[in-house]
Amino acid sequence: MFLDRIAGNTILVGGTNGKGSVVALLESIYLAAGYSVGSYTSPHLLHYNERVHLGGVEVSDQQLCDAFNTVETARADTQLTYFEFGTLAAAHILQSQNPDVAILEVGLGGRLDAVNLFDADVAIVTTVDIDHSDWLGEDRESIGYEKAGIFRAGKPAICGDIAPPSSLVKTADDLGAELYVQGRDFSFDCEQLACRFHGGGLEWTGLPQPRLAGQHQRLNVASTLMAVASLQPRLPVTRVQAIAAIAGTEVVARFQIVATEPEVILDVAHNPQAVRALARTCGERAVKGRTIAVVGMMRDKAIAECLGALGAMVDKWFLASLPGPRGADASVLADALLISGIKEPHEQFADVTMAYHAALSHAKPEDRILVFGSFVTVGAIMHALN
What residues contact residue 163 under an 8 Å CB cut-off, 6+ apart? Predict the structure, then answer.
């Protein structure tokens, strides 16, 4: 049983990677089309307010505190996790504003995630890959089943993975959802500077390359536009409005270049699929000098596989310990380098900021510094830059 609707139209966005990009693209498109939009994402990098947007703008401290008080009063003796509490607060804020469209990012998995409390007019699963194995399972079939739990009977269910696990397809069928699969039912294809979207009755040509860096972002644009096509009878969007949004959307800490000479790139990639995408994007962008990595990761991630995905292009590693019970010590990352067969030199540091400043001191103007591995890692460097 799903809870009351929180907007005129609700979109749930789940998946292993790409959720933040799809939420940002949807938000940009519907704002460009003149609709009132609310969104909820997680986690945040610097401030909790980043998680809840109204009209593309972070909500205020007062709005959050008022919502927290409402949830605290209503819950009585009911125990809530940090994420459940925050999700209910965000839903309260969005519902009170009754936007034309609400875009909600799933936190972990899908079937049992707090965001799945709310009914959806469209549900998107961006990709399915290995992450959060302790909770979701060790293989794509197990994870695909959990991700597909956000699909709804008789409603569009969009899969951005071009090779979805059979469990996702079966779950969509069992639920009676209208499944649309990337590459089969919709696509976003580019030749040089011009792109074309096909799907859901839309045939849009002359679209721009996404401003978001990396070939994988084309898949995210395709999933986004398929959702737009699905809601077109209720929320009409023109091709011109979509063009403006695709060309202008940026997402913090997704191959974000924050400095030059040396070039500094921030990316929250923290699982093998995301790090492979980061490696491909680096390969698309030549650098004259060396590539230097500053990395800190959580100990429950596939650390060796993540570091191995970048091993061929990194010339030196600056390994940082992350705080808290989930944070991996730098020595754990060093062991992972050995397991991955990476022989390039490395140094170990007690925290991310120390590792970053050491990398800056080591780098030459023509070099590139990659900061990745966790939202905590990137958030610490954003604090340092500020």
Answer: none
Find residue 291's DSSP bridge partners. 368
**pLDDT score for 367:** 98
Output the pLDDT for position 2. Answer: 41
Residue 3, pLDDT score = 55
Tokens of 164: 């979805």
pLDDT score recorded for residue 6: 83
pLDDT on residue 133: 67
Q: Which fold has domain 256-385?
A: Protein-Tyrosine Phosphatase; Chain A (3.90.190)
Query: How far is 305 from 303, CA to CA, in rounded Å?
Result: 6
**Cα angle value 353/359/363 (rounded, 5°):** 150
Residue 374 CB partners (closer than 8 Å, separation 6+) = 268, 270, 296, 297, 298, 301, 322
Domain 10-248 has CATH 3.40.1190.10: yes
Q: Measuring CA to CA, which residue among 168, 129, 126 is closest to residue 149?
A: 168
Asked if residues 271 and 131 have their Cβ atoms less than 8 Å apart, the reply is yes
User: What is the number of helices (H) and of strands (E) in the chain?
Assistant: 13, 17
Query: Each residue of 185-217: pLDDT tens digit?
Result: 999 999 988 999 999 999 999 999 999 999 999
Report d(CA 350, CA 30) in Å as an integer. Answer: 44
Rounded Cα distance, 380 and 323, in Å: 11
The span from the first CA to the last CA of the chain, in angstroms, equals 45
pLDDT of residue 372: 98
Residues of the chain with pLDDT under 50: 1-2
E strands in the chain: 10-14, 37-40, 52-54, 57-58, 101-105, 122-125, 156-159, 178-181, 186-191, 194-199, 202-208, 256-259, 263-266, 291-295, 316-320, 346-349, 368-372
What's residue 303's pLDDT? 97
On whether the CB atoms of residues 378 and 45 are closer than 8 A, the answer is yes
Sketch the domain layout of the chain as residue ranges. Answer: 10-248, 256-385
- Which DSSP category does 210 fall into? P
Contact 37, 9 (CB under 8 A): no
The DSSP secondary structure of 83-147, one letter per residue, reads HHHHHHHHHHHHHHH--SEEEEE-SSSSTTSGGGGB--SEEEE----S--HHHH-SSHHHHHHHH
- pTM for this structure? 0.95
Question: 3-class SS at 216?
Answer: helix
> Residue 313 half-sphere exposure, CB side, CA atoms within 13 Å?
23
Residue 172: its pLDDT value, please? 98
